[in-house]
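Structure in, sequence out. Go:
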């Protein structure tokens, strides 16, 4: 069984997607599959994805003929996935090279935690660092902040597929804030969160 399934959805992402994919295929942790949806892009995103599939057989492409939206693609990707853990990644994000390794090791050593996020840095279109996004670390601090603001940065998360299957993953009636809504339902059944306060 594959350890990690990374789920990505891309739409007109030609400017950023190559750097995003490079940051995944160069990870120090290698036991993963990357399920990537091209959501009916009208630029060169599809061709870029096809080139990467030739380079790395861990990349599993899905080419939508009609735009489905992020939430639908996330659930479709999870349904296709073979991993124990689900990791999120967007087509304009960059994962540092030890991200998967550190998150897998954390979840392996903390069986009581269902989701692990990380700190992150916002960057502009040219990759210049803008500001640090810190997050509350421990579960109780995350739960305390949850009604006021989203305490987990969606593209940084890795979660246990088996745990989140209990709430049927993302609610497809939400085209945006689908992560925030899912955290509330997960908290409602007692799933446990934690953040690593390290930029990954």
């Amino acid at each position: 069984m594959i350890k990690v399934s990374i789920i990505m959805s891309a739409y007109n992402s030609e400017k950023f997607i190559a750097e995003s994919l490079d940051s995944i295929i160069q990870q120090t942790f290698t036991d993963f599959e990357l399920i990537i949806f091209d959501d009916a892009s009208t630029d060169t995103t599809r061709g870029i994805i096809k080139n990467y599939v030739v380079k790395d057989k861990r990349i599993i492409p899905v080419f939508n003929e009609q735009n489905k939206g992020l939430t639908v693609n996330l659930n479709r990707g999870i349904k296709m996935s073979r991993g124990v853990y689900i990791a999120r990644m967007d087509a304009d994000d960059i994962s540092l090279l030890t991200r998967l390794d550190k998150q897998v090791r954390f979840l392996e050593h903390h069986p009581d935690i269902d989701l692990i996020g990380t700190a992150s840095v916002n960057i502009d279109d040219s990759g210049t660092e803008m500001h640090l996004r810190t997050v509350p670390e421990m579960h109780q601090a995350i739960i305390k902040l949850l009604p006021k603001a989203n305490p987990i940065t969606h593209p940084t998360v890795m979660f246990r597929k088996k745990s989140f299957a209990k709430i049927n993953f993302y609610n497809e009636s939400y085209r945006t804030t689908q992560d925030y809504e899912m955290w509330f339902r997960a908290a409602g059944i007692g799933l446990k969160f934690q953040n690593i306060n390290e930029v990954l």
